[in-house]
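Hey,
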Amino acid sequence: MNIHIWIQHKNVSAFSFNDVNTERLKKLLPENTVRNYKDSGSFKKDLKFADIVLIWVFKQEWFGLAPNLKWLATPAAGKDFFKVTLPEGVVKTHGSFHGIIIAETVIGMMLSFSRGIQKSYELKDKILWPDRELSLTMNTLRGSQLVIIGFGSIGQHIAKLAKVFGMKVTGVKKSMIDKPVFFDYDDKIILHSKLDDALVEADHVVLVLPGEENTTNIINEKRLKIMKKTACIYNVGRGNAIDEEALVKSLKSGNLKGAFLDVFKQEPLPYDSPLRISPNLHIMPHASAISPNYMDLFIDDFIEKYKVWITKNG
């Protein structure tokens, strides 16, 4: 098999497949020819030889350049990252390793609010010794109620780490599944139809939803109003899931303690976005999965999928 790789990112080195990654993949798959490309020109020129392509985004017209192509593998978790009509005999797979990294990011976000870390940073140049101010907002994760909307692989990684901190977890799904083995008796899985009931009790709400039409503004003005004033919301899925205008309004009115967003309806987030100046709202540039071992995790994930694929296809 000829495995061709073009995974490059102009800003984040962790999102680029480097020479060390290439050598590791060669050692893991010695029976294959592995080529890593640094530019689109040489990559497209050699597509006629490719059986398997590892790539961020593949354009529809490139299928005509790749008569032997059998498999497209992208590190991206989101199914909406790139959409193509696959020719007969070609499969596409997405990365399923992101939860390990993103779970730590989400726990960090929650700790920053509950333990006064973010507030302390904001007050460091304003108040000499803000112990009183911090005491009004600080709490513990242990015993708090976490609601995870979108309880797939990433959501379950978040839940598993949250249990280490003693949080009570409710996972929200479109269809019912069995409880994970790490759940306690009072943790639960509920359907989207019961979301409002869960939001009323939530201390922390994490969204890990795909960018689909039926997830747009799932957190809207009505649902923000029923949440506790001491609650915080976090989005590491897709930006369409939150009504951003309603969120700003809720934070300005003090109806919500805080929000930490990694994804937005428009990315990059414009400089003039009201989100940037909203009180108690903190942003990350779609970076919750950045880690130096990102590509190693992708390779591990690809190898597991390769074993299944080669068994089926010979």
